[in-house]
Amino acid sequence: MPSFNAAFDAVLKFCAGLAGAIFALIALAICLNVILRNTGSGSLRGLLDAVEYGLLAATFLAAPWVLWKQAHVTVDLVTASLPTRVARPLARFVALLGFVVSGAFLWYATDAALHSAARGSMIRTAFVIPEWWALSAAPVGFVLICIEFLRQALHPRLSRDMAGL
Predict the structure, then answer these.
(1) Domains identified in the chain, total number
(2) What is the DSSP string of 104-134?
(3) What is the pLDDT of residues 41-65, one digit of tens each?
């Protein structure tokens, strides 16, 4: 039976792959739309709305993977020069701070999605969809981000530890 960490890593990889597929579909759809417009064939109805929702979903699907891989922008000029005995507790503190902030975002994102669902709010653009569908991307992403911050708080990784990867 796989460990929690291995299973969670697989979830993060799946979400990143799904986000990548969404980004690729967006790129292909935009190219197709440009070709159609330039050949006088019109354009794909609702493409702008689909791209907006795709970007929203892909961003929240990819963010936990980016955090896990530590592929986000960091400024570690100071922390890289600290001794490990100081840098590791500092990394743990920063991860806990990230957990708290992400937890607050999770709370409000979930509240917004649940209230939208309770009200039956609809988005009426090129598509007519329940608003909570679009709002649900954020809570999913923030749950995964919170879990990853907790993992990093328990087992902090320093940028110098990642240098060989």
Answers:
(1) 1
(2) HHHHHHHHHHHHHHHHT-EEESSSEEEHHHH
(3) 988 999 999 999 999 999 999 999 9
